[in-house]
Amino acid sequence: MSSLQQDKSFDGLAEKFARNIYGTAKGRLRLKVIRDRMLAELPVETSRLQVLDAGGGLGQISAWLARKGHEVLLAEPSEEMRTFAARRLHRAGVTPLAASIQELPDRLPADQQDFDLVVCHAVLEWLYQPYAALEQLITRIRPGGYLSLMFFNADALLLTNVLRGNWQRALQGQLQGKGKGSRLTPISPLPPEAVIDRLQQAGLDILGVSGIRVFNDYLRRELPPEARQERLLQLEKRYCQVEPFWRLGRYLLVHAQRP
C-alpha cells in the first residue's frame, strides 16, 4: 500500500500540531471564527445536545462545548492526541474514545449510536477516502440533528501554490501531501462544490458555508502598524460568508441539518 492509500497518522505529531496549528495567531483566529459561526448557526446556546466530535484531536472544540453543558463524546484514533485531549477534558468528565471515523460502527457505546450534533473539523483532508468517512458521519446524525463540518479547501491550496511560485505543481495538479513524516500538507484537500453536493444528495439542508481564514494566509510579511490582529479578526468575521471571499478560505466550515 503506498503512502497515498492510507490515512495520515498523527502519532508523534501532537506537540507539533499544538504548536504550529493552535499555538499561533492563525490558529487562535481559526478557533474564534469557528466558534462565532457555530454560535450563529447551531443551537449550542439554547439546547443541551449530545455531541460526537469525530477526529477531535487536541479537544479544543469538545472542551468548549462541554463547558456549555453539552454531553460530548470525542473520538480520536491517535493515542498521543487523546492524551493531550484528556488533560483538557478531565474537568468536564469527558474520556476520549479510541476510534477513527471508520471504526465508529464497532467502537461507539451501545447507548451512543446517533447524536444531536456531529462535529468533524479538519479531519477529512487527512483521509485516503474522505467521502466514505463523510457518509459514515451522516449516518450518526439524528433526525433534526446538525453537522458541523470543516475541511481543507482545495481551491485555496491551488491559489497558495500559485502565489508562492509553485507553478509547475499547480499546472500538474500535484498539490496534495503524501502523508509522510511530519509534513502537514493534507493528502485529500477537497473542492467546496463537491462536498456541498454530497451533503445535499444525502438529504441535508445547508444552513451556512463560511470561509475560515479568508485573508490571513495571503498576507504579506511586512504590514503597516494599523494592521492589528483584532482588526484582522473583524475582517475575517465580516467577509467569511460574502462572495467571493469565503471561497478563498484556507478551510471551509459547512453547517447542515438533517430533516
Could you walk me through the main structural features you see in this protein, from its secondary elements to its overall organization?
The chain contains ten helices and six strands. It has 259 residues and is an alpha/beta fold. The chain has one domain: 3-Layer(aba) Sandwich (Rossmann fold). Strand 1, helix 3 and strand 2 form a beta-alpha-beta unit. Helix 2 packs parallel to helix 10. The N and C termini lie far apart (39 Å). The relative contact order is 0.16. The model has no long low-confidence stretch (mean pLDDT 91).
Topology:
Layout (H helix, E strand, L loop, with lengths): L13 H9 L2 H17 L8 E5 L5 H8 L3 E5 L3 H11 L14 H4 L7 E7 L8 H9 L2 E12 L1 H10 L3 H6 L19 H10 L3 E8 L16 H11 L11 E7 L2
Parallel strand pairs: 1-2, 1-3, 3-4
Antiparallel strand pairs: 4-6, 5-6
Concise account of the structure shown:
This protein is of the alpha/beta class and 259 residues long. It has helices spanning 14-22, 25-41, 60-67, 79-89, 104-107, 130-138, 154-163, 167-172, 192-201, 229-239, and strands spanning 50-54, 71-75, 115-121, 141-152, 205-212, 251-257. Helix 2 packs parallel to helix 10 (229-239).
